[in-house]
Design goal:
By secondary structure, this protein is mainly alpha-helical. The protein has one domain: Growth Hormone, Chain: A. 70% of the residues lie in helices and 2% in strands.
């Protein structure tokens, strides 16, 4: 029996489950830390919520920008395997530094803050080495004749991501987000959540190290993700160039374009927050620059060029999905903390844990979705990847529309029932399963092999831009119920101040500033955000419009994909 027949008779290679486990522990590390990060910044390091949201968005954005660097280094020098091991080790070190920061902040706040910045930086670069390379290895497990299985394979792989997310969002808050019977948070407990996250990352790195040589191989036993010098002509599609060819002119042009775009974005950015004025423009400029650089490659054929354009167009719309979806770790966490009745069958759930339902729902529904795609494909009715992603955008718009109308009449002191947030996460999970694993699969199916990891880096830049936008949008969260209660304790009518019916005294302004309470409404695109209803409607409009436009573009994108679905 030939090797092709053997491969065709096998549902999925064992290497998929090794990568599944590796990614699971890495996501435990990432999502566990993410669940605690903004609460740690606000409660232990004494930052304002708006600044914490911007840092959160910048951190996530850079985590999905650095895969560009990691993908480039893997494709040209180190190979996928070595970069995964390097990235995993760096992220474990970063979590240990967060543990140290959360340990020493009572005695040395300045040093703790410095260690926090250092930790986030190391995690950012570690993630950059890890993320694009493990994703590209999933696609490399399948020979050319089995590429149709990638939607299902990436959905299974995505379940691993969310098993890890579920475990991290459950265990880390249990350990790190602790309140006593009176509702007073133990600000010293965050360190145990960060320690658990670091331990998980160490486990994931070791799993990959010991199992990679046995299972992460091609059907004929060749190691996947080795040094680029080990690539063979048979690894590439017929007629496909084996190496990119960027001219010195295109490289110089890319540098110039980056600088022009960076300063343009910086010019139109308000405020003095370094994350907002420096990091966000870097993310946006990098994405556009890289897109142009890849298209300048002289070896690209007409079909390859059109397929790459599909990746770019879809990636643009992905920005709006993640901008809305990633409110989970910032604004939705603050709402869960301050204006939600978190009684869940008699248990007062920690606010950082509410987002756990997303990971839980992905674990429950990932396999049914993969079965659905398989059945539709077998019947010749499977929709194209861009159509699936448009559905994902529409679903997230629906989720925010529902939550917007349920907060409309809450007032300043009303509490949102937790089941509405659970419903939001359920609908968003369906949207996520239509968009995120499908996007990963799309890159694997459309990208030329010589751009394999780099193309994933491009796709992750769109995620980065979405996360950066999520930070900006999270920072416009209006005052929640706790702010009105704190102001009332000070003898101040905060609603009157926000409505400009009352002019606070200098003493009152000082008191409000100490409590980190803003005296003005937030603003987005020139519009004041007065309440939670208006805040959530911003996401309805952004994702709803994106869904409609992507639906309209789907027929054209189908033609540009040249037979790939």
């Amino acid at each position: 029996m030939n090797q092709t027949a053997v491969q065709s008779s096998t549902k999925h290679p064992k290497g998929l489950w090794v990568l599944f486990g590796t990614e699971m522990w890495e996501r435990f590390n990432f999502y566990g830390m993410r669940a605690l990060l903004t609460l740690f910044l606000v409660n232990s390091l004494l930052m304002k919520e708006a600044d914490a949201s911007l840092i959160y968005g910048g951190f996530l954005g850079l985590c999905y920008l650095t895969p560009l660097l990691g993908g480039f280094i893997a494709d040209r020098f180190f190979g996928n395997r070595n970069c995964i091991l390097l990235g995993g080790s760096m992220m474990a070190i970063g979590q240990m530094l967060l543990f140290t920061s959360a340990t020493i902040f009572p005695s040395n706040l300045s040093l703790a803050t410095t260690l926090m910045w250092l930790a986030l930086g190391i995690i950012i670069f570690g993630n950059g080495f890890f993320k694009p390379n493990i994703s590209s290895m999933v696609g490399s497990l399948y020979p050319k004749q089995e590429k149709s299985k990638l939607d299902t394979a990436f959905t299974i792989f995505y379940m691993g991501i969310n098993v890890g997310a579920f475990l991290g969002q459950f265990i880390c808050p249990i350990l790190g987000d602790v309140k006593d019977s009176g509702g007073i948070r133990d600000i010293h407990a965050f360190k145990w959540g960060f320690l658990a996250a670091g331990g998980a990352m160490l486990i994931g790195t070791l799993v990959f190290y010991f199992l990679k040589n046995k299972y992460v191989v091609t059907p004929d036993g060749k190691a996947i993700g080795g040094l680029p010098s080990g690539n063979e002509a048979s690894d590439f599609e017929e007629g496909e160039s084996q190496k990119a060819n960027f001219t010195s002119t295109s490289l110089i042009g890319a540098v110039v374009a980056f600088l022009v775009l960076f300063f343009t974005f910086k010019y139109f950015t308000d405020g003095d927050n370094v994350v907002k004025t420096i990091i966000y423009p870097v993310i946006y400029a990098s994405g556009i620059t890289l897109a142009g650089l890849i298209l300048s490659d002289k070896t690209l054929t007409k079909i390859e060029t059109q397929r790459i354009w599909v990746i770019y167009i879809v990636s643009f719309f992905v920005i709006f999905f993640w901008a809305a979806f990633e409110q989970a770790g910032s604004s939705l966490t603050f709402i869960a903390d301050y204006q939600t009745d978190r009684n869940f069958f008699g248990w007062n759930m920690p606010p950082s844990m509410v987002q756990i339902f997303n990971g839980l729902f992905v674990v429950i529904f990932a396999i049914p979705f993969s079965i659905l795609w398989d059945k539709l494909r077998a019947g010749g009715k499977e929709p194209t990847s861009p159509f699936k992603q448009a559905v994902g955008l529409l679903l997230i718009a629906v989720s925010y529309f529902i939550i917007a109308h349920n907060v409309k009449d809450l007032g300043n002191n009303g509490l949102l029932a937790i089941y509405w947030l659970i419903l939001l996460y359920l609908i968003q999970t369906f949207g996520e399963l239509c968009l995120s694993p499908i996007g990963l699969s799309l890159v694997g199916k459309l990208a030329p092999k010589r751009f394999a990891s780099l193309a994933y880096g491009v796709f992750f830049i769109s995620n980065a831009a979405g996360y950066a936008l999520s930070g900006t949008l999270g920072s416009i969260l209006p005052a929640t119920g706790d702010k009105f209660n704190k102001a009332k304790e000070l003898g101040i009518d905060l609603q009157g101040v926000l409505d400009k019916k009352i002019v606070p005294t200098a003493e009152q302004l000082t008191l409000l500033d100490k409590k980190q309470i803003s005296t003005t409404n937030t603003v987005f695109a020139g519009f004041e955000i007065h309440n939670l209803f208006e805040f959530f409607m911003v996401f309805v409009v952004l994702t709803g419009l994106a869904a409609v436009i992507l639906f309209a573009l789907t027929p054209r994108l189908k033609r540009m994909m040249h037979g790939v679905r």
